[in-house]
Amino acid sequence: MSNTRINILLPEDVAQILSTVKNKSAYIAEAIKEKKLHDEKKRLRNKLEAAYKAAVNEDYEVYKEWEDTLSDGLEE
User: Fold this and answer.
1) Residues 40-72: b if buried by 16+ CB within 10 A, e if exposed
2) pTM of the model as a whole
3) Please, which domain of life does this record's source organism belong to (predicted)?
């Protein structure tokens, strides 16, 4: 695996946190990977939530279409 050198500016409080870390490059790389994974999980969770909401709406529409036939022939 090849490495690329980059220069970044960090807020002072973040730089202070990194000052206690021995291998800053590995620490930052791992933090970025974790953030990316977190963001991807959040994106998928939102997509799944939207699909469930759409399914609920679709199920309700089908129910409304058949609502009158559910009690056909039954006495109340």
Assistant:
1) eeeeeeeeeeeeeeeeeeeeeeeeeeeeeeeee
2) 0.65
3) Bacteria
